[in-house]
Amino acid sequence: GKSGYDHYMLKEINEQPHALRQCLSGRVDELDGRVELEELDDLIEDPPEAVQFVACGTSYHAALYGARRFRDRGIPAQAFVASEYATEVPPTGDRLVIGVTQSGETADTLSALREARNRGVETLAVTNVVGSTAARECDHALYIRAGPEIGVAATKTFSSQLVALNLLVEGVANGPRSGVRPRSDGVRGRLAALRELPGQVQQVLDESNAAEVARTYLDSSGYFFIGRGYNYPVALEGALKFKEITYEHAEGFPAGELKHGTLALVTADTPVIAVVTGDDEIARKTVGNVKEVEARDAPVIAVTDGRSDVERYADEVLEIPKAHSVTMPLLANAQLQLVAYHVANELGRSIDKPRNLAKSVTVE
Ligand code: F6R
Question: Is 302 helix (H, G, I), strand (E, B) or coil?
Answer without folding.
Answer: strand
